[in-house]
């Protein structure tokens, strides 16, 4: 399960399908240096993304 406190890099490394979801939300930052230190919630908020919706979409993608 993906949670908001996981680093962006950790999410993409563990769940490669997550990259497509992040890109669809405009989060292209999973390849940048900040992705290693910033958690998913922080990154989403910085991009004005609704965190609960993002987490739902990510978890749906990795479970289906």
TrEMBL record:
Q: Where is the DUF1858 domain?
A: 2-54
- Per the UniProt entry, what species is this protein from, by scientific name? Desulfosporosinus acidiphilus (strain DSM 22704 / JCM 16185 / SJ4)
Question: Can you name this protein?
Answer: Hydrid cluster protein-associated redox disulfide domain protein
Q: Which SUPFAM superfamilies match?
A: SP0561-like
